[in-house]
TrEMBL record:
It comes from Tardiphaga alba. InterPro entries: HTH_MarR-typ (IPR000835), MarR/SlyA-like (IPR039422), WH-like_DNA-bd_sf (IPR036388), WH_DNA-bd_sf (IPR036390). PANTHER family: TRANSCRIPTIONAL REGULATOR, TRANSCRIPTIONAL REGULATOR, MARR FAMILY. SUPFAM superfamilies: Winged helix' DNA-binding domain. Residues 22-152 form the HTH marR-type domain. Gene3D superfamilies: Winged helix-like DNA-binding domain superfamily/Winged helix DNA-binding domain (1.10.10.10). This is MarR family transcriptional regulator. It comes from the Bacteria.
Amino acid sequence: MQKSGKVKSQAGTEAPGGYELDAQVGFLLRVAMQRHTSIFMSHMVDELTQTQFAVMAKLHEVGPSSQNHLGRLVYLDAATIKGVVDRLGLRGFVATGADPNDRRRRAVSLTEKGSRVVEAAIRVAADVTTKTLRPLTVDEQRTLTRLLKKIT
């Protein structure tokens, strides 16, 4: 920062009050996410959204789960996870029924079709991650992942 309270932007101009949008973490995370989303959507199988993929990948990882617990595992609120599960159910990717451990809850599981789709999607997702992180060195990729985990 200079004595005037202004900082030079990347373009070499002074940013009033020292605030430069291009240097803000939220802005940079959003732009990085837009880039990742573009790569994801151009490669993902069966037109899965990132949220749908996350739900299916987590079910693949942990097995059948109550809808409520599944939502917490993928950081979705109750209304959002219900909508995602309903849409995946309409496509035949998941099935719901009474949770054998607690009949008040809905249990969600992958169908055979859902298992096939998510296994193919996981292979694609690994390639999407590689493409998203391509501008970084391997050490930078590890550091970015570590730091993102630290702030989530």
